[in-house]
Amino acid sequence: ILKKRYTLLKETISREQYAGYLDPLPFNSGYFMCLKLRKGIDTEQVRLHLLEKYSTGVIVFGHVIRLAFSSVPLSKIPELVDNLYRACVDLV
User: Fold this and answer.
1) What predicted TM-score, i.e. pTM, was given to this entire model?
2) What is the C-alpha to C-alpha distance for residues 3 and 9, in angstroms, rounded to an integer?
């Protein structure tokens, strides 16, 4: 189950449309992955916006966003990444 989630997240996050906003840090098939936001977007603002507008929760550590993909159903992983992307676009 975790390998499928990892694989789908890795494929999804690497899509060209997200490249200008999401900068994934190296990760393996563990339980979470971290990424930095490009274009000087504030991670805390994104976290709050995700909760308010997209009902999506993420963890913020300074300038890094942590996605706990181990607790996200496989079918929701593309939506998670897209919500993160849309929140960034909203705030630019």
Assistant:
1) 0.92
2) 10
